[in-house]
Each structure stands twice: as structure tokens, then as C-alpha cells.
Amino acid sequence: MVRPRAASRPHTLPGFGLALGYTLFYLGVVVLIPLAGLVFKTFTIPWADFRAAVGAPRVMAALGLSFGAALVAAAIDVLLGLLIAWALVRYPFPGRRLADALVDLPFALPTAVAGISLTTLYSPNGWLGGFLNTLGVQIAFTRLGIVIALIFIGLPFVVRVVQPVLQDIEVEQEEVAACLGAGRLQTFLRVILPVLTPALVTGFTLAFARAVGEYGSVIFIAGNLPMVSEIAPLIIVIKLEQYDFAGATSVALVMLATAFLLLFAINVVQRRFRKRFWPA
Questions:
Q1: CA-to-CA distance for 119 and 136, rounded, in angstroms?
Q2: How far apart are CA 54 and CA 238, in angstroms?
Q3: Which domain range does residue 46 map to?
Q4: Sign of dihedral through CA atoms 51, 53, 54, 57?
Q5: Cα(first)–Cα(last) distance of the chain, in Å?
Q6: Is residue 135 part of a domain?
Q7: Which of 98, 106, 140, 159 could be 123's S-S partner, Cβ–Cβ 3.0 to 4.6 Å?
Q8: Contact 129, 139 (CB under 8 A)
Q9: Mind listing the pLDDT tens digit for each residue in 188-228?
Q10: What residues have CB less than 8 Å from 106, skipping those under 6 apart?
């Protein structure tokens, strides 16, 4: 006896095939094909030329500065973003809505405008730069200025990722911990921080990914001194202006591979935290 074939279960929302097709088309045309073209283009470059382009002291210094400054800025963004999100969620104060709206300003502000604004503020003749120079601290045209610019453009990522998680944490959990004898620091470390850790890791990843390839907001405040304050994206632009397409492609591939490995490692850490504190 042949059983009747069960009807396929309909999807809750219509248009699944169209949505899936558009998603695959977007990933293929906009993401995968350009990256594959970069990789295949690099394979056509002789190994000696690739090693000479990437191993140049100027390029190595720029790569180290870009990734190092991005890691430092992302770590600082996690701390500042947590404090800002905590204040916006837990404490009512005058102007909270305005402060909440200002968090998104780096998203809407053109990167060139952000770079010029930061340079004007921290230059030796700027409002803060002049005061800091009297204290022996120079920010503009140094590596410290690069880190500050990267903190500025990466901070909203952490705040917007952590903020909704904080809003979902019930205050009753903290009250129960306090009733059981836990102090404020112990409550934060054992009750709140485990819930926030995946969001903090996600915010760190987004801020780091944005900072690695940032160009417009950095070149104005960096000073672009070779071996001192020159970032890797600027090296790529310089090589393109010199029609050194092989060198630009080589540096771009190294940045892509390094960023991919770092993001992969961060995602592994994030999954471990999720499995540990949010088991299925």
C-alpha cells in the first residue's frame, strides 16, 4: 500500500525563494566575487615580487600600526561603550535622549569631516591640542591621534550592541543576588558580565573590523609620516597612484587574510562564551 505523500510544510512568510535567491546573488556579486578576484589577481604575481612588496619595512610598519591601533581602539571602545550603554539604560538624567542620539553621530558623519574635526580639535593650535601641548602631550600627527580617531568611529558599534542586552536584563536578578549576600562588584562579575560578554565580543569585533580599514578619518590626524604614522590603507592608495597594482594587491591580500584570521579567532571565543553561559 502506497502512502500518500505528505504535503510540504508551508513557510510562515511567503517569498522564501525570492529572498534566498536575492541573498545568494548579493553575497556572490557584492562580496565573494570581488574578494575572489583579489585573491586570484595576487596568485598571478611572482612570489619574489609579492614578498618584496609585503616585506618592505615601510609596508610592515604600516600593517603593524593599522592592526595594532585597531586592536587598542576596539578594546577601549568596549570599556567606554559599556559605560555609556550602562548610563543610557540604567540612569535617567536630563538630556538622555539627546545623548542617545549623539551616539550615532559617527555613523552619519562623513569620515573626512570627522578627520578634519578631530585634527582641528587636537592640533597644536586647536582647542584641546594647545592645552595638551603645554602639558607635553601631542595627539595630532602621532599614533595616539590615530587611536583616538579609531575610537571615535568604533564606539557606536559597541554601544548599540550592548544597549539592547542591558535593557533585557531584569533588575530582579541583581536584587536576588544582593539578597543572597553578593556585593555590587560580585553581582556585576557573576550575574551581569556573563550575559553581556557575547555582546561585548560582538561589539569588539565590529569596532575592530571598522578600524582596520578606516581611511578618511585617520589620514588627516595621522600626519602620514613613513615608518611613524602611516596606515596600511594609505599605502594601498599610494601604490595605486603609482600604478603599482601588484604591490597594492599584495598589501590588500595580507590585510584581508590577517583580518579574516583575527575575526575568526574572535568568533571562536564568542561561541565558547555562548556555550558556557547560554547552553542550549
A1: 17
A2: 14
A3: 37-102+156-211+225-277
A4: positive
A5: 41
A6: no
A7: 140
A8: yes
A9: 878 888 888 888 988 999 999 899 989 989 999 998 888 99
A10: 114, 152, 153, 155, 156
Question: Side-chain half-sphere of 131: how many Cα atoms within 13 Å?
Answer: 3
Q: Cβ neighbours of residue 261 under 8 Å, at least 6 residues apart?
A: none
Assess if residue 9 is contained within a domain.
no
Prediction pTM value = 0.85
Return the ∠ at Cα 133 (arms to 211 and 233), rounded to 5°: 20
248 within a domain of the structure (yes/no): yes
CA distance linking residue 255 with residue 53, whole number of Å: 13
Judge whether 210 and 218 are in contact, CB under 8 Å.
no
Q: 14-30: per-residue pLDDT in tens?
A: 667 778 887 888 888 87
pLDDT at 155: 95
pLDDT in tens, 152-187: 999 999 999 999 999 888 777 777 777 777 777 788
Q: Quick check: 158 and 78 in contact, CB under 8 A? A: yes
- Residue 73 in contact with residue 156, Cβ under 8 Å? no
Q: How many domains is the chain partitioned into structurally? A: 1
Q: Which three cell numbers stand for residue 25?
A: 546573488
Q: Output the domain CATH number for residue 85.
A: 1.10.3720.10
Spatial contact of 230 and 104, defined as CB atoms under 8 Å apart: no
Q: How far is CA 211 from CA 111, 118, 147, in A?
A: 12, 16, 9
CA 173 to CA 175: how far, in whole Å?
Answer: 5
